Structure formats: C-alpha cells, structure tokens
Amino acid sequence: MDQKRVYKLVLTGGPCGGKTTGQTRLCTFFENMGWKVFRVPETATVLLSGGIKFSDLNAEEAFKFQENLLRTMIQIENTFFQLGESCSRNCLIICDRGAMDASAFISKDKWELMMASNGWNNVELRDNRYNQIIHMVSAANGAEEFYSTEEHACRSEGVELARELDYKAAAAWVGHPYFDVIDNSQDFESKICRMIECVCQKLGIDTGDRLRASSRKVKFLVTAPLPVDSEFPPFQDFDVVHNYLQSNNPKMQARLRKRGQKGHWSYIHTIRRPKICGQVIEVKTQLTHRDYLNMLAQRDDSHFTIFKRRRCFLINNQYFQLDIYREPAHPRCRGLMLLETYTALTADKLKNILPQFLIIEKEVTGNPDYSMFNLSLLEEWNSTNKYCHNLHGIMQLADNQDIPISKSLTTMIQSNGIDCKAGSTLSPIINCYQQTIVNKSVNGARNGLTNGKATFAERCNINGDDQEPEIRNGDSTMRPDESLRELKVDKL
C-alpha cells in the first residue's frame, strides 16, 4: 500500500492575483481525487478584519503586531499540520500565505531582530516548513484591466502599490527549493490551470492533458442502465446541490453550490461577470454554512434547485466526471446523466479512451439543451424568454456534424447573463467583441415543427459565409450557459 502523503502548500501573491479562486479550484481538484484538503485562513485578513489599521500604529506597535501575527500564523498552521498527520487519507494543506510573507512588510533589520528574539530562522520558516510555494502574480502586473479592489474588504491598493507589494511578496520566498511563479502571460483560466498542474507535477500526479492551454471541455449524454459500482474504476461520489440567485445586475450571474460526502459539506458562491476582452471572469468564494443559508434566501424562483450525484474517476489516464441528476427535478432532467472531461485530444482519439462500460449516446458539447442553466428553468423552453442560446466557432450537433459559423462574424460565448437586443447593428456591450445573433425561437413555435420541438440546429439561426445574420423575431436574448464553464470552475 502506498504511504499516505501530507503536502503543505503556500499559495501567495500580490493583490488580485487569483489566490482565492486558485485555492477553491485546488480544493475541488484534489477532493475529487479522494484527498482530504485543509485550507489555512490568511492570518492577516483575520486580524485586520477586527478593526486594526496599520495607519493607526506607531513603529513599535507595528513591529509587535507583525511579530504577534507571525506567532498566530505559526500556531494556526501547526494545528492544521497536526490534523493532516493524523488524517487517514492523503492530505493537501493549502496555506493562504505563509510565514515568510511577513518579511515583506518590515525592514530587513527588524525581521532579523524578530527572528533572533523568537528563536526562528529563515531556513526553518522558508525551506523546511512547507513543501512548495506558489506565487500568483498580481493582475496589476501584466493584466491591469482586470485589477480590482471591489470584492475584497481589506484591499485598497492602487495599481502601483499592488505591483510593489507583489514584488516584495515574491522576493520573500526566493530560495525555497520548490518556488513557482504563475504570471499573467495567458488568460486567467490558463493561469489557474497552470497553477494546478504545477502542484500536480511536484506531487507526481499525472493529469494527462486536461490542464493544458489547448484543453477543452467535452460533454456526452449517457443512457441507462448505469453499470454496478464494481464495474467502475476507483471513484469518489459527491452529493451536489446548485441554486441560482437573483441578481440586481443583469450583466452578472450568481449561484450557490453545496457539495459533500457523508453529511460533510463545502459551500461555494460564484459570481460570473461580463466578458472582458474575451475572458469570462468568475469570482468564487468559500462560504460558511451560515453564510450559505443567508444567501440561499436570495434564490431565483425562476429556476429549480438542481440535485446531482457526482461521480469522479480516472480511467485511461483521463479524468472524468459523471453527473447523475436526481429528484426533485423538472421532467426534462429525469434520468439525465452527463459525462464530462477536459482534453486536448482530437475527437477520434478521445473516442478510444472513453469509458467502455458506459452507454454513451452522443456528444452534446455546446448544446444548450444540456446546460445546467437551461435544465433548471422552471418554465417550459417554448414559453420562456430565459432560454440560453450559445454559439461557438464550431457547433457539435447530435449527428456529430460540424457547422461553421459565418467567418465574417466574431463569435463570442455569451455566458454572463447579458441581454443583447438586436437592431440594425449589434449592441456594443463588450468592446472587444461583436455578438453573433441567434434565433430566440425555441421548441418549435416559430419553426413550424409539428411535434413542438426544435433541434439544436433548427433553433440556431446560422447562415452561410456570405450572408448576414437573420433575426426572425426582432430580437435575440442570450443568457449564460452554465455548463460551459462549470467543470473548469467548479469541478477541477
């Protein structure tokens, strides 16, 4: 039997670098593999949220505060480290900043004085205490358009100060044997994937191609009967509950996720912001049970609560998630099973590594009929204007035929709840993109279908390369396709 592992990881970085989202994604990724994950809270945030302001402290008080902060941090970490050692499973301990971060905020002389008076040294605090350090570079350095202080109660730094703090935070860890810097050379999703892949590489965990920049999410419809458990490779089952929340801003979307095993739950709040320069921005926050219950009061009554059993397993060096929809649910969800994975493989190669013990009916990647947002709608699709239409550069149909979209148009995945009213010109909601117009008619009403249902191809108004988009009903309303980013954000 393989020896149990306890891996101590520090996730640090400058302001608005992606630490919060990265921590959430790492947690979900390793929990799906059966690991126990502990998240050590950021000690500075805990103390500063109690009313302490650096501007109110004199030099001596500031020094004592930093010293006590470090003592508190070490004790909190030790508590989690001991829990990790006694845990029967492999355990990942994610520290939101670590001991050396404190050295970025005081002079070298005062830091050395603090070390000497407490019997500490840099080798023990930096090199021996943690297995790996990951520095998430601030958006203020290379992704300035995404830098914001709005979502953080203890953050008020301007761009220049944020850059300075980012450098100091990185310099504090130079010398650790496993120190990795994740910059902003790619989009945010790729940044998060690089971070997760970096941890997996150090641990010797083979993730295949699911975290590569070229990876895409693919989704398949699975039909009953589901094989008995013994036919699956080793798996982890989770109960998952999703609720969409009301939003005062029509350009944003909010949802809650409750996920757990054997009565133990984790809670995530996700906000999807409007697309900026081609990137979907998601802010994910870990919640307490009390916060979750309070926010649940804002549930959007136009959506059903989605209940799933999520089965995660690895086969053929490929990581899969099988979502099994459960009652209570809309009739459209009864018996529904969707298999998802991330891969850079071509369709032919991917087909060879799909689980052979499952009955896979067809690929439904990009088909809005299988997005969680649409599946959860309370109203029937042919009587609501909330149905979400999404187009990609290539659409995958039921018969696996690729239909190219007009080359003269720039296609944007509309996944942020933005309603675009089409007139003679396209609304400039997002400066970087134009929007491909899609026929809003769904489930037959305007397509003359005798059975009252329209296929994905029929609902999407697609013209040839030399034609302009046609608007049959005068406008086009597009809402977020939840499933398009759900696995990456929520299930990695």
Automatic annotation (TrEMBL):
<dbReference type="InterPro" id="IPR033469">
    <property type="entry name" value="CYTH-like_dom_sf"/>
</dbReference>
<dbReference type="GO" id="GO:0005525">
    <property type="term" value="F:GTP binding"/>
</dbReference>
<dbReference type="InterPro" id="IPR038727">
    <property type="entry name" value="NadR/Ttd14_AAA_dom"/>
</dbReference>
<protein>
    <recommendedName>
        <fullName>NadR/Ttd14 AAA domain-containing protein</fullName>
    </recommendedName>
</protein>
<dbReference type="GO" id="GO:0035091">
    <property type="term" value="F:phosphatidylinositol binding"/>
</dbReference>
<dbReference type="Pfam" id="PF13521">
    <property type="entry name" value="AAA_28"/>
</dbReference>
<dbReference type="GO" id="GO:0070300">
    <property type="term" value="F:phosphatidic acid binding"/>
</dbReference>
<dbReference type="InterPro" id="IPR053227">
    <property type="entry name" value="TRPL-trafficking_regulator"/>
</dbReference>
<feature type="compositionally biased region" description="Basic and acidic residues">
    <location>
        <begin position="469"/>
        <end position="492"/>
    </location>
</feature>
<dbReference type="GO" id="GO:0045494">
    <property type="term" value="P:photoreceptor cell maintenance"/>
</dbReference>
<feature type="region of interest" description="Disordered">
    <location>
        <begin position="463"/>
        <end position="492"/>
    </location>
</feature>
<dbReference type="InterPro" id="IPR027417">
    <property type="entry name" value="P-loop_NTPase"/>
</dbReference>
<feature type="domain" description="NadR/Ttd14 AAA">
    <location>
        <begin position="8"/>
        <end position="190"/>
    </location>
</feature>
